[in-house]
Amino acid sequence: MSEKMKIVLAYSGGLDTSVICRWLQETYAAEVITFTADIGQGEEVEPAREKAQAMGVQQIYIEDLTEDFVANYVFPMFRANTLYEGEYLLGTSIARPLITKRLVEIAQETQAQAVSHGSTGKGNDQVRYELGAYALDPDIQVIAPWREWDLNSREALMDFCEKHQIPVDYRRGDKSPYSMDANLLHISYEGGGLEDPAKPADDDMWRWSVAPEDAPDQADMIEIEYAQGDPVALDGQTMSAATILRRLNQRGGAHGIGRSDIVENRYVGMKSRGCYETPGGTILLKGHRAIESITLDREVGHLKDELMPRYARMIYNGYWWSPERKVMQALIDESQKPVNGTVSLKLYKGSVSVVGRSSHSDSLYDADVVTFEDDQGAYDQRDAGGFIKLNALRLRLGAKIGRDYS
After folding, report:
1. What pLDDT, in 10s, does the model give residues 220-241?
2. pTM for the whole thing?
3. Of the residues 125, 128, 251, 259, which is catalytic?
4. Does 179 participate in catalysis according to the annotation?
């Protein structure tokens, strides 16, 4: 007899993945191994163990990957000041490479032939999971039930649960009408009334932040210390990567910071409206650009700004484990060696303002050169005349032969 197939499933314990677990067991006559990652989503993950056990799962992996997530995925991404399409801080996108990596590792540890996920055939996550899985293990099989089965509605899923005695919560109660994804970097909202891009989001949808108009009238002043581009301390207190982000989420959310409502271009081709709360990430982006402003060489900074949109697309489209991302990351990380110092920020009614920045050893800002007062010979203003004439030479030559630049 052939050995029973093993499949490692990315498992949340919710309706979709519970149905997938049973469906895989029956459709593939397989042993399902579940993997549940705690990446700071703010909900208990341990109940997934009991739900998996109720469906006969023997090997159950539940792991706290929060520090790994922030230190080795979120912070490297923020070294590039990454924004997708000018607004999205990539909270969902950057979580998928870590989850995929552990899925593949568990498959290798347990000698499983396949991995499986609960992403639909319309979204980006299927691409992210599967590109990552194939990059990390070219021989792995990936099973995407939403692309195979005919359970295409919530009612069909609930009927499947009833027929197969799957223990799920049947009560709708106060359950959100939105499809939500949370981790320590953000929480996202899609579906429901948000599918009409002209309709404002409900005020009570937001979970992590107060409305800016309801935020305190007193500003919150904070100081972030950076070492080689990464935050290492908050208000003078050294903290782990995850602790810093968690604290900034709390303080930013209390002041209405980090809300966004965008229509983005999915990799599969459609436009999608999503709302996001990223309070800590919004603060970190502002702070990082501020410390770079005094420590990065001009052309290095401009090069990073030119490369950032491409880097953002790599992450959004699922190419974290690609050779081009690795090469670009090496360039970005090299640029961060002098990015050391502190930034002072003010949080007030939805806004983050830089109020100061300093670097004792790596600042390129020279007050003696830039001053409007007597610079004591630090800068010879007469040099600017030759500089301007050399840069104007090609323009003057063109104008002499009649080139029209107007």
Report:
1. 999 999 999 999 999 999 999 9
2. 0.94
3. 125
4. yes
